[in-house]
Amino acid sequence: MTKLPGLLATAAILAGTAVAGANAQETIKIGVTQPLTGAFAASGNYVAQGAKIAEDEINKAGGVLGKKIQLLIEDNKSNPTEAVSTVEKLITKDKVPVLIGAWSSTLTLAVMPKLEEYKVPMVVETSSSGKITTSGNPYIFRISPTSAMEAKAFQPLVKKMGLKKASFLYTNNDFGIGSANEYSNMLKANGVAIGSMETMDPKATDFSAQLAKIKASGSDSLFVTTAVEQLTLILKQAKEQQVNVRIISCGGSNSPDQLIEQAGDAANGSFHTTFFPPWFPEVTKNPDVSKRYMDEWKKRGHNVGGLTEGYRGFDGVYVAVAGIKAAGKAEPEAIRAALWGVDVKGVYGDIHFTKQGPAGKESGQNVPVVYLVAIENGKVVKTPF
Amino acid sequence: MSRYLGWLLVAFMAVFPLWLNDFYLLHILITTGIFIIAAMSLNLLLGYTGQLSLGHVAFFGIGAYTSALVSLGFQVHLLPDFTIGLDPKPVWFAILTAVLIAGLTGYAIGKLSFRVRGAYFVIVSISFAEVVRLVAVNWVELTQGPMALNNIPALRLSLGFFELSFLRKPAFYLLVLGTIVVCYVLIARLVNSRAGRAMIALRENESLATSIGIDVTRYLVLATVVSAAIAGMAGALYAHYIRIVDPDIFLFIYTVTMVIMVVTGGKGTLAGPVVGGALFGFVPEILRGMEIQPEIQWIIYGVLMVLVVYFLPRGIVPAIEDYFSRRKRSPPEESAAAAEPQK
Amino acid sequence: MDELSQHLLNAIILGGTYALLGIGLTLIFGIMRVVNFTHGELYAFGAYCMYALIMLLHVNFFLALVLAVALGMLLGAAIEMLLLNRLRGADIDTTMLVMIGAWIVMQNTEQYVWSGVALSINSPFPNDPLVLGPLSVSWNRVYVFVVATALIGATYYLVNRTRLGKAMRATFQDRDTAALMGIRIDRIHTATFALGSGLAAAAGALLGPVFVVAPTMGDLAASKAFAIVILGGLGNITGATLGGFILAFVEEIGAGYISSGYRDAMGFLLIILILLMRPTGLFAQRERIG
User: Fold this and answer.
1) Residues B22, B24, B27, B33: what is their CA dihedral angle, to the nearest 10 degrees?
2) In chain C, where do the E strands start and end?
3) 3-state secondary structure at position A248
4) Interface predicted TM-score of the whole assembly (ipTM), two decimals
5) N or C: lower Cβ tally within 10 Å for chain C?
6) Chain A contacts of B147, Cβ < 8 Å?
7) Between vectors from CA B127 to CA B123 and to CA B131, what angle results, nearest 5°?
8) Are strands A122-124 and A99-101 parallel, antiparallel or unpaired?
9) Tens of pLDDT along C255-266?
10) Residue A166 and residue B109: Cα distance in Å, rounded?
């Protein structure tokens, strides 16, 4: 019977050291909210994979502020309410000092009030709606371009491609609507007639009705804004219904390699905007960073089609870490202030933030480069312009 | 004895979590509480009248959207040059409007749907919820579609210069707890009244009930109205807590969640939905803590539901009650238990 | 005019698969009185089988279809024997709840195994469509239509000209008398569920390569199947066939001329209208609805 106190004491000491040991391995947590399931699952998973590559690279190099970083990746299920839930959990339960997310513009817009409520900054890695950086939320730091920037970059190509009449097919959320608005305004300002503007539900798989209307409109070009799953189906169905227009996809979440793989020759003759061309990384601003990211991606056996999206997560993590380093501590307010001064050489280019939005409550916006590529004969090529 | 136990539990729940001051725990309790309210409302239809309404989430969602829209204000074009609009109203007004509208919808649906029964009724109820969902998705001018209604204001009550803001969790938690108690008492009074006994009669044997003069449709519609109104209340609370509403709120999976709560807890009992709601509110968090993937969580729910239907066909609460009454085993107790048909 | 013809052509093609879904469910719903929530999951199962067989195991495209249908029937039989058998005398609510539980388990298993990302199945058909004047239709969809029609024909034959079919119809008309006449009700139920599930799997296996394969694809399919069953009348195979085509037409015309967003709502609106006005369906047989 006298053994019992001894046993208990030993157990307590062991437990204590285990807890203390766990504490000694404290990491700096970075919250990541991405759509790992649902309508945007393909892209969300790629971004998460890219983020993990950066995590491992940084930890191998010693981490930041003497500690390793740990990505807490939550699935927001491509749903705005769920996105809010993930952010709530990451901030109140896991107490992350900085976030990366939330992929779709609708999801990002949904979580923005929470960022302001809890005063935690977020690095926006993909969303393109202008509203995100112009609503006066000082906790937003976006590294991806806005639809307006994209449309502006496309402008010189209007004459070169000889566009006369264009139609639009886009998802009926902030991403699609914002993109269609910006592009149609730009086209109108450059003398191009607008055919029909058709919307689709992000989860739809049958576009025969919309395509029939577009065919009847007599347009020579079709601007499509959606994620890669729907883009594949649109390319196939356009071919099936003999809708002979020049298809141009916007938004940069189009994974041309995946399109070639899944749409086959229906993908030939289409054009795609992207913010990172993995087929010719030498033209990017920081080709060494691009190559490092691409090599590690291929080494891990990830789908090559995801290269065009994974870098968003990759750069996002590097930016967040740069903020932590410059702040000197893993505190949200310090990180927020420090992010204004970071300059990261990423796959997106040279990343730094300029002020955008109402005075006194500006958000940070980066200005990356925009590329247009084409698919010919089952391969991705530079456009001949 | 059990009555005091109930009030003791309420008092405990009012004090303990606030004392802990763990915001994440409060968050879980609040969302669970909202679902319990919705489950209680479903129990009225499912448990007491015996109608398997699988479109219940429609009332919840209608309550959420109505409250959100009234508090945000809106403007829609019914015709190209004819708009109707509403300026933003105070949140308490929005919530009351939501309850009213949900109740009215319940009335309309009740009158229309109860022409059919059984499996057909189930299908009508599901279809109704889906149509409402598709309207929410497509009538973008009103509901913002998939872009969601954002920045819904929080509840603020002001009487003179005394202002009570329900933005902070502790206050909202007490609000939800209070609503649960109020709804529980309301449903208990209804169920134990003449109307309630009529509902139970028609659950047990509809043709027999009709033959003794019970107006079946009237009581079914009454049950639907009350049920829809309470569900609408839950939806409104949800809208002003999460402060964002999107069409996915109408997804069938949420109806399924409520059904699971009611069935495993014990349909036709007052405490059933509370137990079921608590169980299925906390189980995901426990599983999340164990780092189990969400799909596995759902598989566990599904299996749990099937098992409960097989082995505890009346639910957990009745099974516990049976257990306790069997332990007592004395004749006066047995006849007392037999004389309480609605427990 | 061209646009209208294209819509009509699309509707005919789509109608075939809808009919398959509807027939499968009407057999189960009609004969067994089970609100089969797993019907959509069998549809998805058929599609996932095709993916696994064609893309992972490199089985021949056409053989894969046969295998997928066979597997669907086996799964259906398993569900019936494991879950429904015990509930033979139970009320309809209990059965429905068990089916819901099964549906949750199946869908999440699929999601767990395959992840939520939509999958593409390669088909051996050329991407260039078959062009008939101003109309065009992809070869893939022509194939789907042909197979669907063949399966519908086969089901007809099975139900109307074989002994098994006769037994099924007898059970549907009057279960107790059928039992008294020596029909093994257990076996009929299992066979019916298996048949219905096989048809759902066939629909999924046919449409999988046309669209994409995702874990939630079954939900929409199931709701359309219910719409068709209500349209055509419970247990009425002819009604279900016609109902499938009618739904396809309503969807195509509605999506083409009214609003593409509300396409999927057409089915539900149809259900509600019919149930409220003619609960026995458009092609009525004597039916108790209560």
Assistant:
1) -70
2) 130-132, 135-137
3) strand
4) 0.78
5) N
6) 80, 106, 109, 173-174, 177
7) 175
8) parallel
9) 777 766 677 777
10) 45
